[in-house]
Design a protein that fits this description.
Helix content: 10-25%
Number of strands: 3
Strand content: 25-35%
Order of helices and strands: HHEEE
Shape: globular
Largest sheet: 3 strands, antiparallel
Strand order of the largest sheet: 1-2-3
Structural class: alpha+beta
Number of helices: 2
């Protein structure tokens, strides 16, 4: 992750590149409150988040 991904301005949420989250692949595992979610980049370039 580079510095621009982690920087936030007052009132703005952090911004991340999906390709960095997936390590250049198509999927990433995201953990939230003890649950694991899968982020997937489709062939059409859309994002799908599933439990």
């Amino acid at each position: 992750m580079n510095e621009t991904d982690q920087q936030t301005d007052a009132g703005q949420a952090p911004s991340h590149q999906a390709e960095q989250l997936t390590g250049g692949g198509n999927t990433a595992q995201i953990e939230h409150l003890g649950q694991t979610y899968t982020l997937r980049i489709t062939r059409a370039g859309k994002l799908i988040l599933t439990k």
